[in-house]
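Q: Sequence in, structure out?
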Amino acid sequence: SGDERLLWGYTVLEPFFQGAMFIRTGKVLADIEPAHAARSIHVPILFLHGEADTLVPVQTAYALYDSCG
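A: Exactly. Output:
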């Protein structure tokens, strides 16, 4: 299915993304905390997320919404 191909593609490309991110920012993906960043945003944010998303649980969007400043 499409989700399986997406996960496989992410698995293959993830080390390159991590390396590029570390070179640019000195951080890795595990260092990023979106809910923390959302607390400092003071402009409207539109969250689009589907209940059928199998990659990222919809609860993630609710948690980000609840974290907004």
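Residues 2-25 form the longest helix (24 residues).
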